[in-house]
């Protein structure tokens, strides 16, 4: 008989190696799937993991794009991880991302066509506030009425999507857009454009903020008393209460941080890579960031790496579709396998496999 | 086994060798907003892509990418296509408009074709669209003739001129044959979301609607209508959706005809222009006369006389003798739009932001 036995301490060896094992297992099973689809598995894996970084034809463009794609994922995931550490499950980052983009864009567009250098900082502020305010709704409802923040934050995503549809075809619609939905394009308005800081590097302000967030979260969680309170609330809620941690404050802090960071990600995306508020502006970063947060084991450095890995599979997946004619769904399956194997192998961090009869304790 | 692999790789090497010596094939690339298997909008564009391959054979290579989100991802996908050697890139959704123009600026030697938009900021960008309202007029006539509850439904995606135009054409021709007809419009704010589309169709059926036309990409509204055992009919949208013409048990299904987007002639024409070196920027808006809007086969569920009337309308539009928006038509607020015999201008249609008289609803904004 095989059975699992809980380790007294999580295994450090397994913590370090499970991501690698998961990647290798994904390559094996994913490669089998690609072979079944009639594509050379080695070529497919190479296209996904190698070409975006080193292919002479594409890498010059795709390498910077890794940062563009990973930036919002990391920024949002960092915020989420802080809440997840405290056992506060904000599933609605997608909605906060949308509201941040809308509020930030609206603050800027209200002043169009001013070229004041203060516009972009103002938009950043409004974006962060927008995301924060949207996340404050589940926080208020949870602390006042004891509602479940998972449901409330998730439901607010759909509300935000409808607000997005409404403002893109109404309030924020480009007056010169012939009645079509979508706001003005920020790329054509220098004062509000989140351009690359150094051309050709993919490094825009959102990526800079993502790196700052990684460092700040690291300091918060390891060096700051609030970080300790957050971890304590997650790991031992009763102990936290006895030691005087105010649960409502932790809830507001965690949802507030994650909402603000998601809002910032939305603002940087709408003023930079996306360029405009449009009906389909959100492309799932808020949900993918949940995967990134767990892939990175809720650890800031881990999230940084996980964000880059996720971005790699996206961009590599696109190349595989384009160059090898693989169907889009197979790429999504491949990404899904990665998460599945990571969570599956994660078991070995906390448990060890025992062969033979289980002993009665 | 081994020898076979050896032979295969030898054959591969041989073809690669000849390809290198022969003239480089022209590469046509397609960006799709949904999955090819949506059975509607994207499926139909892919049929057009396959028609290009079929027409030119080895002279053309095609590549595509499905389910590309509008926004930043689209721009990256197009850039990757440009870098991979595409000579012409078709971007097949309205939301790709700014991305198409931005990428076109960086690759002046590559031709870009954007579907359903209006921005052509660079000489290497064309736009193309089809006059879907011609098909809406025909199904409107069928809906007005066949409804028993006098309530017909329109499952609308987004309040843009394209959709408003479709709603007006549909209602106008339904109300011409049946002055008592009432129109129910339901907005779903998506192009492709089978669950949402099904819910909206269900909500309309519950309100007593017995004819549904959809302005979204999936087959879900027809699947929902099929549950009503013949009491509710609908139309194939974008694609023929012929499987819904007959139920699994052999009884007639809800799809009585369809509005088919036939992109093949345009795609073949444009790729040929690239091969010949005669490609120029254009703004194309074709319909039934050019074969870009095609009606699917009308089933026997439609009464014989209605079928004949509908066919007469198709023939008139195809022959250029009838324009679906011919006056007198008033706007919903009662003001005059088109005088008797006056035909709507393309500019009026492309910026349409009002309902015509008789539609008792507001366009959301």
Structure overview:
Chain A has one domain (40-325): ABC transporter involved in vitamin B12 uptake, BtuC (Orthogonal Bundle), CATH 1.10.3470. Chain A contains 14 helices and two strands, in the order E-H-H-H-H-H-H-H-H-H-H-H-H-H-H-E. Chain A has helices at 12-36, 41-49, 51-54, 59-85, 93-109, 119-145, 149-168, 205-223, 225-235, 237-242, 247-271, 285-295, 300-324, 328-350, and strands at 2-6, 351-355. In chain A, strands 1-2 form a two-stranded antiparallel ribbon. In chain A, helix 2 packs across helix 13 and helix 4 (59-85) crosses helix 13. By secondary structure, chain B is α/β, with parallel strands linked by helices. Chain B folds into two domains: 20-130, Rossmann fold (3-Layer(aba) Sandwich), CATH 3.40.50; 133-261 and 294-350, Response regulator (Rossmann fold). A six-stranded parallel beta sheet of chain B has the order 2-1-3-4-5-11, sandwiched between helices. In chain B, strands 7-6-8-9-10-12 form a six-stranded mixed beta sheet, sandwiched between helices. The model of chain B is unreliable at 1-22 (pLDDT under 50). The chains are: A mainly alpha (361), B alpha/beta (365). The A-B interface holds A 57-58, 61-62, 65, 68-69, 161-162, 165-166, 169-170, 173, 178-182, 185, 187, 269, 272-276, 278-281, 283-284, 315, 318-319, 321-323, 325, 327-329 and B 29, 35-36, 63-67, 69-73, 75-77, 79-81, 83-84, 94-95, 98-99, 102, 117-118, 158-161, 189, 350-353, 364-365.
């Amino acid at each position: 008989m095989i059975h699992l036995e809980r380790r007294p301490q999580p295994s450090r060896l397994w913590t370090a190696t499970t991501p690698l094992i998961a990647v290798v297992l994904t390559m094996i099973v994913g490669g089998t799937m690609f072979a079944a689809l009639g594509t050379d598995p080695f070529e497919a894996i190479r296209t996904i993991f190698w070409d975006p970084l080193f292919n002479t034809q594409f890498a010059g463009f795709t390498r910077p794009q890794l940062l563009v794609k990973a930036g919002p994922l990391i920024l949002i995931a960092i915020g989420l991880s802080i809440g997840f550490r405290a056992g506060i499950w904000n599933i609605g980052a997608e909605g906060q991302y949308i509201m941040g983009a809308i509020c930030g864009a609206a603050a800027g567009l209200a002043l169009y066509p001013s070229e004041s250098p203060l516009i972009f900082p103002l938009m950043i502020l409004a974006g962060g506030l927008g995301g924060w305010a949207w996340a404050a709704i589940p926080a208020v409802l949870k602390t006042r009425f004891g509602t479940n923040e998972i449901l409330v934050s998730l439901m607010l995503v759909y509300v935000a999507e409808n607000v997005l549809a409404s403002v893109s075809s109404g309030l924020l619609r480009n007056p010169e857009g012939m009645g079509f939905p979508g706001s003005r394009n920020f790329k054509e308005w220098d004062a509000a454009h989140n351009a690359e800081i150094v051309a050709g590097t993919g490094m825009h302000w959102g990526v800079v903020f993502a790196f700052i967030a990684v460092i700040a979260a690291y300091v918060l969680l390891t060096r700051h008393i609030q970080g300790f309170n957050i971890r304590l609330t997650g790991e031992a809620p009763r102990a936290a209460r006895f030691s005087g941690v105010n649960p409502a404050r932790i809830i507001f802090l965690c949802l507030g941080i994650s909402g603000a960071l998601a809002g910032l990600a939305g603002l940087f995306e709408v003023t930079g890579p996306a360029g405009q508020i449009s009906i389909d502006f959100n492309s799932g970063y808020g949900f993918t960031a949940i995967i990134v947060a767990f892939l990175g084991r809720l650890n800031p450095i881990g999230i940084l790496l996980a964000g880059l890995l996720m971005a790699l599979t996206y961009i590599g997946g696109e190349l595989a579709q384009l160059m090898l004619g693989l169907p889009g769904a197979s790429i999504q399956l491949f990404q899904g396998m990665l998460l599945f194997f990571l969570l599956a192998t994660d078991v070995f961090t906390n448990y060890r496999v025992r062969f033979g009869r289980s002993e009665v304790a | 086994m081994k020898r076979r692999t050896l032979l295969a790789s030898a054959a591969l090497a041989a073809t690669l060798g000849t390809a290198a010596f022969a003239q480089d094939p022209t590469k046509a690339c397609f960006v799709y907003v949904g999955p090819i298997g949506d059975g509607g909008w994207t499926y139909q564009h892919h049929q057009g892509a396959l028609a290009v391959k079929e027409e030119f054979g080895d002279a053309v290579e095609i590549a595509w990418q499905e389910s590309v989100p509008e926004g930043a991802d689209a721009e990256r996908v197009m850039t990757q296509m440009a870098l991979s050697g595409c000579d012409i890139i078709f971007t097949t959704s309205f939301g790709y408009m700014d991305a198409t123009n931005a990428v076109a600026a960086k690759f002046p030697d590559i031709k870009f074709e954007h579907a359903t938009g209006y921005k052509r900021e660079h000489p290497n960008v064309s736009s193309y669209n089809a006059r879907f309202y011609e098909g809406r007029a025909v199904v409107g006539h069928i809906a007005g003739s066949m409804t028993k509850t006098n309530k017909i439904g329109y499952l609308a995606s987004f309040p843009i001129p394209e959709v408003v135009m479709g709603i007006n054409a549909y209602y106008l021709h339904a109300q011409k044959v049946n002055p008592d007809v009432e129109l129910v419009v339901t907005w779903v704010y998506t192009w492709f979301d089978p669950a949402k589309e099904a819910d909206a169709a269900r909500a309309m059926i519950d309100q007593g609607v017995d004819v549904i036309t959809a302005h979204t990409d999936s087959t879900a509204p027809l699947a929902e209508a099929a549950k009503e055992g013949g009491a509710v009919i609908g139309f194939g949208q974008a694609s023929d959706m012929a499987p819904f013409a007959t139920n699994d048990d052999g009884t007639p299904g809800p799809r009585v005809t369809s509005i088919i987007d036939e992109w093949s002639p345009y795609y073949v024409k444009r790729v040929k222009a690239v091969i010949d070196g005669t490609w120029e920027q254009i703004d194309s808006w074709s319909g039934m006369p050019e074969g870009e809007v095609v009606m699917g086969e009308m089933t026997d569920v439609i009464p014989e006389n209605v079928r004949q009337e509908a066919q007469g309308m198709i023939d008139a539009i195809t022959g250029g003798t009838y324009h679906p928006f011919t006056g007198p038509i008033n706007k919903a607020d009662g003001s005059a739009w088109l005088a008797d015999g006056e035909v709507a201008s393309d500019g009026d249609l492309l910026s349409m932001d009002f309902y015509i008289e008789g539609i008792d609803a507001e366009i959301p904004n």
